[in-house]
Structure formats: structure tokens, C-alpha cells
UniProtKB/TrEMBL annotation:
The chain crosses the membrane at residues 105-125, 145-165, 172-192, 198-221, 233-255, 261-280, 325-346, 366-387, 456-480. Its main location: membrane. GO terms for molecular function: phosphate transmembrane transporter activity. SUPFAM superfamilies: MFS general substrate transporter (SSF103473). This is Major facilitator superfamily (MFS) profile domain-containing protein. It is a multi-pass membrane protein. It holds the Pfam family MFS_1. Residues 7-24 have a biased composition (Polar residues). Residues 1-26 are annotated as: Disordered. It is found in: Membrane; Plastid, Chloroplast. It comes from Gossypium raimondii. One of its GO terms (cellular component) is plastid membrane.
Length: 493
């Protein structure tokens, strides 16, 4: 701040404007300071006696000296204030950009990376099951049983994970889940060599860890992300699942080819420890618990988030009596029936039906998942934009979910009529791409319906979704084995 600005903002008393008049009473002091001998006020030094002049001039000198001292103090104050402002600006510029990044999006990115690991560890079995079944002589029904055993544990912890997250906090629950499923992933090769029952148990244990991830994530984001950013944040987090499938499908064939199928489980499982170290250091269950959160961002989050108070009891009767809750549960079941079948059996379809070499055709195999990652974030941006334009949240959710259901239904039915592998992959990509709009539909609707109980509500609906995964995955293996026999019997007859 400049010295001139400090003077203009000071509290010095200002003298009233002078009115020049020949009838005005002469002011000797003003004449001594400002007026010439022949001033308009008619003041003349000769009219003052020597004694009176010395007395008055002494008084004026004292006044001037007092003003000068005040001005010197003001200059010192101005210099110190300028130094303080400069030092504050220097402090702001000295803070690294990554520490000025919004903390709520740090939480979103950490949740995104957790779901990236989640599907990496889940989809690796879809690739490794091919050399494993050749080594251990597993038939398609056994392969379907192994693939579905993951969902046994996944089913157990959906509601429990939601209750735990809503009452204890999402940070603890999600951290537990990642560590648990990472250990189970690393133990998979050991269990497979011990025998099929051990492998089934370890896969179920892996499902226990991944089962708490979605309810815990939903609980955290309901506290950290404002309503206006909900669709985008959830779309980004769930796109981590799709990119996890991409990463797993891309790297698993290479690792199997170079180091054998056990290397997939060892390498992917070890990544969980790196994530857990970052999670412990950076994450908090709510913005109120974060001591490093900037006041401006804390005010923004607390003001615009609905879920604030911790949950002590779950009103089960009230929740289960609401029709929107049951509509959400049915939607989740229908959505996961197709999604989990594609997740677990798509590599087998590529290998056995389309005759793709998974190592040489990595980009083609991951194209549907890349499409999902892109369209999920596109759908989230569209949904938040529609809400900001004034369209009701309910209408936006219905639009997004309609695309998420009708799009896959159309493209998967076309898949049975195409003969070209390229067209088959294109239909799969379009099916998965439109399916990803569900992230801005049913997956965002839990926080709309019951923000305080979003973890429990997601646990309920995802339980139905897991049942779809269990039955759909196992039924696909059964159909593949017995459907072939039926076709052979018909052809021989």
C-alpha cells in the first residue's frame, strides 16, 4: 500500500472549506502559515506585537511538529503494512500447486484409484483362468463356479459394509477393504495349487473385501462432494472400475506370457499397499475431521452437502417401505445381470468365439472398457449440466438410466446377428458405452433418495446386483457346457 493511499485513508481531522470573504474575521495563525503580508484576509504581520507573534508562532511550531511526528509514524506503519502484505503474497505463491488443489477432489481421485485396483484384481482371474483351467483340467462348469465364488463373499458384506461405513466412517471401511482384497489376490496362486476348495474360499474372501468398497465410497462422497458436483465425481470414481478392467486386460496377458499366470496375482495384489499408505496420510471420513482443509473449501462443502450428522440407528422399516428404494433395487439387479456376465466372460468370448489372441489383440479387447470410461464421464458432465440448467434431479436420473438400459439391450441383441469380429467388438463397445450412463442414473440416485443412509442404501441395492452376478455368471458357464452338448446331440441326430 502506498504512502499516498495511507494518507487518504487516515483519520486526520479535515478542516472545513474556507470561504474567502473581505468581512471574515482575520485568523492570525492561518496568516502566519499560509498568507502573505497582503493576504485576502487582510492579515498583516505588522499588526501583531512581537510578544504575541512569538507566542503564537511557538504554538504553531508545536502543532507542526506534532503533525510531522504523526506523519513519520504513519510512514513507518505504511512500510510495515506493505511488508506484511508482500510477505502474505509471497507465502501464497510459495505454497505448491498440489497443496492448493481442492481436497474434495483429492478424495475423489483416491476413491477412483481404489476402484481401479478393485477391477484390476477382479478381472485378472478372467484372463488367468484360461491357463489355469488348462493346467488343472477344469471344465466350463468348474470355471463358472470359480468365477461366481467371488460373489459369495461380495454378497455377504454389501449391507454390513454400508452399515459400518455410515456408523464408523468411510475411511476406515474402504481402507480395510483394499487391504483385505489385496491380500486375498496375492494368496490366489497358493490356494489354487492347494486345491479347488481353497481357491473357492480365497476368492470368496476377496469378494468380502471388495464388497465394502462401494458402500464406503458412497458414504465418503456424500460428505465430501457438493450436490452440484455429484454426477461428475461418481462418474469419475466408477470410471476407475472400467479403466481397472482396461489395465487388467492389457497387462495380464503380458505378465502371463513373460512370468507365468501367478505373477498377475502377486503384482496386482502388492499395489494395494501403496494405495493404503496414501489413503492413511491424505483421507478423512468427512471434511469436519480434516485439520488441513482450507476454511473456504470446508465452508463450501459443509454448506452444500446434505449428509452431515453421523448415523446412530438405521430406520430399516422406513427405508424398506419406500417405493423408490425398491425401484432402485430392481434397477441395480437388472443392470448387474449384464455387466457381471460381460466382466467375467468377455475374455473367454474373445478367445473361444472370436479367436482373438489376447496378447496380440489387447487394444481390441479393452475397447469396450475404454468406451465405458469415456462415456461415464461424459454422462456425468451432461447430468450435472442438466441439473444446473434447472431440470429436476429425478428427471435427469431417469433420462440417464433409460440410456443405460435401452442402449445395451439394443446393441447386445445385434451381437447375435453379426459374423465379423470387428463388428462384434463394435457392438460390445457401444453396449458398454451406453451402459456407463447408469453411473449418472441409478448409481447417483442413492445419495438423492437418502443421503444420510447412502451407504446402507447402496449396500441393499448392490446386494441384489451381486445376486444377479452370482446367478448370471454361474448360469453362463452351465449354458456353455450343456448348450454345447445339446447342439451336438441335435447335430448327430
Amino acid at each position: 500500500m502506498s504512502f499516498r493511499a495511507l494518507l487518504s485513508s487516515s483519520n486526520f481531522p479535515k478542516s472545513p472549506p474556507e470561504t474567502i470573504s473581505t468581512r471574515a474575521k482575520p485568523n492570525p495563525t492561518r496568516c502566519l502559515i499560509r498568507s502573505p503580508v497582503n493576504s485576502p484576509h487582510g492579515c498583516r504581520l505588522s499588526r501583531l506585537s512581537a510578544t504575541e507573534g512569538r507566542r503564537r508562532s511557538g504554538k504553531v511550531y508545536a502543532d507542526v511538529r506534532e503533525i510531522a511526528d504523526s506523519l513519520r509514524e504513519l510512514v513507518k506503519f505504511g512500510d510495515s503494512l506493505s511488508d506484511a502484505v508482500a510477505s502474505e503474497d509471497d507465502l501464497d505463491s510459495a505454497v505448491p500447486w498440489w497443496e492448493q488443489f481442492p481436497k474434495r477432489w483429492v478424495i475423489v481421485i483416491l476413491c477412483f484409484s481404489a476402484f481401479l485396483l478393485c477391477n484390476m484384481d477382479r478381472v485378472n482371474m478372467s484372463i488367468a483362468i484360461l491357463p489355469m483351467s488348462a493346467e488343472f483340467n477344469w471344465n466350463p462348469a468348474t470355471v463358472g463356479l470359480i468365477q461366481s465364488s467371488f460373489f459369495w463373499g461380495y454378497l455377504l458384506t454389501q449391507i454390513a459394509g454400508g452399515i459400518w461405513a455410515d456408523t464408523v466412517g468411510g475411511k476406515t471401511v474402504l481402507g480395510f477393504g483394499v487391504v483385505w482384497w489385496s491380500i486375498a489376490t496375492a494368496l490366489t496362486p497358493v490356494a489354487a495349487k492347494l486345491g479347488l476348495p481353497f481357491l473357492l474360499v480365497v476368492r470368496a474372501f476377496m469378494g468380502i473385501g471388495e464388497g465394502v468398497a462401494m458402500p464406503a465410497m458412497n458414504n465418503i462422497l456424500s460428505k465430501w462432494v457438493p450436490v452440484a458436483e455429484r454426477s461428475r465425481s461418481l462418474a469419475l470414481v466408477y470410471s476407475g472400475m472400467y479403466l481397472g478392467s482396461v489395465t487388467g486386460l492389457a497387462f495380464s496377458p503380458f505378465l502371463i506370457h513373460q512370468f507365468g499366470w501367478p505373477s498377475v496375482f502377486y503384482s496386482f495384489g502388492s499395489l494395494g499397499t501403496v494405495w493404503f499408505a496414501l489413503w492413511l496420510n491424505k483421507a478423512y471420513s468427512s471434511p469436519i475431521e480434516d485439520p488441513e482443509l482450507l476454511p473456504q473449501e470446508k465452508k463450501l462443502i459443509v454448506t452444500n452437502c446434505i449428509s452431515k450428522q453421523p448415523v446412530k440407528t438405521i430406520p430399516w422399516k422406513l427405508i424398506l417401505s419406500k417405493p423408490p428404494v425398491w425401484a432402485l433395487i430392481v434397477s441395480h439387479f437388472c443392470h448387474n445381470w449384464g455387466t457381471f456376465i460381460l466382466l467375467t466372460w468377455m475374455p473367454t468370448y474373445y478367445h473361444q468365439v472370436l479367436k482373438f489372441n489376447l496378447t496380440d489383440s489387447g487394444l481390441i479387447c479393452v475397447l469396450p472398457w475404454l468406451t465405458m470410461a469415456f462415456s461415464a464421464n461424459l454422462g456425468g458432465w451432461i447430468a450435472d449440466t442438466l441439473v444446473s440448467k434447472g431440470l429436476s434431479v429425478t428427471t435427469v436420473r431417469k433420462i440417464m438410466q433409460s440410456i443405460g438400459f435401452l442402449g445395451p439391450a439394443f446393441f447386445l441383441t445385434q451381437l447375435s446377428h453379426v459374423n465379423s469380429p470387428a463388428m462384434a467388438v463394435l457392438c460390445m463397445a457401444c453396449s458398454q458405452g451406453t451402459d456407463a450412463f447408469s453411473q449418472s442414473g441409478l448409481y447417483s440416485n442413492h445419495q438423492d433418495i437418502a443421503p444420510r443412509y447412502s451407504g446402507v442404501l447402496l449396500g441393499l441395492s448392490n446386494t441384489a446386483g451381486v445376486l444377479a452376478g452370482v446367478f448370471g455368471t454361474a448360469a453362463t458357464g452351465y449354458i456353455l457346457q450343456h448348450g454345447k452338448k445339446s447342439l451336438l446331440d441335435l447335430s448327430s441326430g
